[in-house]
């Protein structure tokens, strides 16, 4: 057989190698950029900022002022009040990068979305924080100057190693991790 | 066997094979339907994104619940199935918005919309990781579709290929079958209270 078709084995290996190249290439083509975008998102490390320090991002300097735990209305829970400061120096860029999304992340990788409404405990214990803008208010408040923002999260008592993740759609895959 | 006969047999086999493949090919709606995660009543059922357990199941002919204009009594030609459950998000905040009851005949019933303002109903509160929350589910069902039914729970009825819990339900105990159930507003921990008549 080998003498009759001397190149059979060679062709077999060439075809196999071509398949290994062509199948991923076909998947890549059919994903229309979504696969590359997903890889870029997944492989991009966030910009980590220590507590109190500020970081330029999306036309402003972002700083985590405080993460204050307040007693939660449910057993074994806390309401975490996150206070952020943004010194906006390029309002056009920040508006172009909207919308923004904020998550609270713990050391185990669990992620909490901000609460829709202010928790009653915030009104009782931190009335100064009530009425301050949230991430979703940025389109209305993004003008040159310093903006104070607050977000509240309902978290379990056992959540540790908390950090705030800030991501602006127009700046992705870059995102901030405020520790 | 002559050549013609061989060809005819081969043709018949090919037609039979094609017909078999045609019958066994799933519909597009089946390909993109939710991924079923089986569970049984009495044990916590877990998907990759949430955990849920059934606490108690009640049956009634009449239901009284708080509404926008005051308390209302809801009658039915079938039965009211009231399920008390608890759920918890696994890794990130989620909202469970889809609940269906699949009867023994395979007919699916969505959760009733007649009690839209009842506290604690599925979808009224977001689930957070690490914080279990009670959930109330209410179905209006024909009597012959209750026993042998399956509870189907998912984040959304519209998200293809997402996971859907399919909890096989046990027969309802006689002590949990009542002529009338009243749902009242509860506290922070349990948003409702049930009273039986």
Explain this structure.
The complex is a heterodimer of chains A (179) and B (197). Chain A has 179 residues and is an alpha+beta fold. In chain A, 28% of the residues lie in helices and 34% in strands. Chain A has helices at residues 8-30, 34-43, 91-97, 120-125, 138-141; strands at 47-49, 54-57, 60-71, 77-88, 100-105, 111-112, 145-156, 163-168, 176-178. Chain A is elongated and about 90 Å long. Chain B has helices at 3-24, 28-31, and strands spanning 35-40, 45-46, 50-67, 70-89, 98-102, 108-110, 133-141, 150-154, 163-168, 177-185, 192-196. The longest helix of chain B is centred in the N-terminal third of the chain and has 22 residues, at 3-24. Chain B is elongated, with a radius of gyration of 22 Å. The mean pLDDT of chain B is 91. Classes of the chains: A alpha+beta (179), B mainly beta (197).
Count of folded domains of chain A: 2
Low-pLDDT sequence parts of chain B: none
Q: Helix share of residues of chain A?
A: 25-40%
Classify the beta-strand content of chain B into a percent band.
35-45%
Would you identify the CATH architecture of the largest domain in chain A?
Sandwich
* Whole-angstrom Rg of chain A: 24 Å
Name the CATH class of the largest domain in chain B. Answer: Mainly Beta
């Amino acid at each position: 057989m080998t003498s009759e078709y001397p190149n059979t084995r060679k062709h077999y290996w060439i075809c196999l190698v071509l398949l290994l190249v062509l199948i991923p290439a076909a998947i890549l083509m059919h994903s229309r950029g979504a696969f590359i975008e997903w890889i870029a998102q997944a492989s991009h490390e966030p910009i980590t900022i220590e507590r109190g320090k500020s970081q330029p991002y999306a036309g402003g300097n972002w700083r985590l002022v405080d993460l204050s735990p307040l007693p939660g209305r449910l057993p074994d829970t806390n309401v975490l009040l996150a206070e952020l400061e943004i010194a906006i120096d390029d309002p056009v860029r920040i508006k172009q990068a909207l919308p923004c999304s904020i998550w609270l992340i713990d050391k185990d990788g669990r992620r909490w979305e901000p609460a829709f409404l202010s928790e009653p405990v915030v009104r009782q214990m931190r009335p100064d924080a009530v009425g301050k803008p949230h991430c979703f208010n940025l389109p209305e408040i993004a003008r040159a100057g310093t903006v104070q923002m607050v977000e509240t999260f309902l978290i379990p008592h056992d959540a540790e190693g908390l950090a705030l993740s800030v991501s602006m759609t127009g700046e992705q895959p870059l995102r901030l991790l405020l520790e | 066997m002559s050549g013609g006969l061989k060809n005819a047999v081969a043709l018949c086999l090919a037609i039979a094979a094609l017909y078999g493949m045609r019958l066994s090919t799933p519909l597009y709606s089946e390909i993109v339907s939710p991924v079923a995660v089986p569970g049984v009543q009495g044990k916590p059922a877990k998907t990759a994104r949430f955990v849920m357990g059934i606490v108690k199941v009640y049956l009634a002919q009449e239901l009284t619940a708080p509404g926008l204009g005051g308390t209302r009594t809801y009658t039915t030609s079938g039965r009211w199935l009231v399920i008390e459950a608890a759920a918890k998000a696994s890794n990130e905040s989620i909202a469970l918005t889809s609940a269906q009851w699949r009867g023994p005949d395979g007919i699916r019933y969505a959760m009733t919309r007649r009690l839209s303002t009842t506290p604690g109903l599925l979808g009224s509160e977001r689930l957070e990781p690490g914080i279990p929350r009670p959930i109330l589910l209410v179905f209006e069902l024909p009597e012959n579709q209750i026993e042998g039914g399956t509870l189907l729970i998912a984040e959304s009825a519209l998200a293809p290929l997402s996971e859907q819990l399919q909890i096989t339900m046990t027969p309802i105990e006689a002590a949990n079958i009542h002529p009338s159930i009243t749902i009242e507003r509860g506290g922070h921990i349990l948003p409702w209270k049930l009273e039986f008549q």
